[in-house]
């Protein structure tokens, strides 16, 4: 009778379980090849053991650039009763391998005070990810989250081998990143008087001021903390729409220069947008230059979505700008604005990313993040873009997981349950000129003010998403089996997760089920 397969999430590409275990305790030592010390440091931090270096240590961390078949993120892991060998071509692969080691240990090893002796299951694993971009976006603009919470999520993403944390730092309802040349962005834009209760269109407000923003040091330290775990932090600064907090701080930036507005207290799409006068682009460049100093990410997200152009249509300045640029009308200023900002990033060696339905307004150098329809992903690929798929019907984790009466408030819309997330697949476009570089889950926080509510919405759906992002071949029944065991790890880590099973729709009074 074969040994049961370990319950790992995401499922490795190739895994064989062997009898026996390797014991980790205070006497265990590491043999560390040159360049592998970051992995050793992460392992020590994770298990709470000294794991000192020794030339003949039985636990070997080997960095070998000749292992080209593993790419930059793959690894090989062999655990026998007497020795452990973790190999990779790049240190990032070793970091991912350490996360697999953590999952092979008992869940008690994840507690703040793990046992003094840990048993590591014997396995042979070769593991290479399906996609180079496996992301999670957290919206800290609608509801600010403190740095310890962000660090905790970095650890949770790393455990599941997700490698991008996109921070949605600015929106109509708040500006969370300091910019030295524009201090009012956080002094004014980082605060709002109250928050809407319920979905867009509600007339109820909570009457509670909401505020918060990060220091430059907090953000640079977060970036370093994430890098030590194989995660890139990608900043998102919204423009030209979703910019009301910035305009509240500096009214001269608006499409109606000098018109004073407050930081928005509502949810939904606001019609307050940046103007197209030259000082606005000076502002955008100054903000982005500071962003580049803090975030070394190759990609910088500049938003670009949900941008009503009614204020431009009513603006003599905008109409004159559209005519001077030879554009068909003020609607075309949207693509023109993004192109100008994107050129600034490209000149500095970074790749601009934008939300876009098809990418038709954007130059091919932009990476496109598609979110509405799979067909939009195919169109963007045909146009030659690098594309990240963030399909809302499978990857927007702010939608409710069930329609049960006690389900916490979520984004209005159809339920996105655990199986919908795990079934998420990417549209194929074999003759496309572009490149599908990965997928990303999103958690907008209009309805999730607290870390506990964010936990509930994110997990275990983020486990399903990670399984799909790393290993697209994993079956739903096998994932369910592994999730049952994996939930003990989530519990040990204090994750207040949602339901572990897909929901059964509750019939409406008419007898019809929710679609």
Description:
- By secondary structure, the chain is an alpha/beta fold.
- The protein is built from 16 helices and 18 strands.
- The chain folds into two domains: 14-127, Chitobiase, domain 2; 133-476, Glycosidases (TIM Barrel), CATH 3.20.20.
- Strands 7-8-13-14-15-16-17-18 form an eight-stranded parallel β-barrel, surrounded by six helices. It has a six-stranded mixed beta sheet with strand order 1-6-4-5-3-2, with helices on one face.
What tags apply to this protein structure?
alpha/beta, Chitobiase, domain 2, 2 domains, six-stranded mixed β-sheet, 16 helices, globular, disordered C terminus, beta-N-acetylhexosaminidase, glycosidase, Glyco_hydro_20_cat, Hex-like_dom2
Secondary structure: elements and pairs:
Blueprint: E1 14-24, E2 30-32, H1 37-47, E3 59-63, E4 75-79, E5 84-88, H2 91-104, E6 118-127, E7 133-139, H3 147-159, E8 164-168, E9 170-171, E10 174-175, H4 184-187, E11 191-192, E12 210-211, H5 216-227, E13 232-239, H6 244-249, H7 278-294, E14 299-303, H8 310-313, H9 316-324, H10 333-347, E15 351-355, E16 367-370, H11 374-382, E17 386-389, H12 392-395, H13 418-422, E18 435-443, H14 451-458, H15 461-470, H16 476-492
Parallel strand pairs: 2-3, 3-5, 7-8, 7-18, 8-13, 13-14, 14-15, 15-16, 16-17, 17-18
Antiparallel strand pairs: 1-6, 4-5, 4-6, 9-10, 11-12
Helix pairs in contact: 1-2, 3-5, 7-10
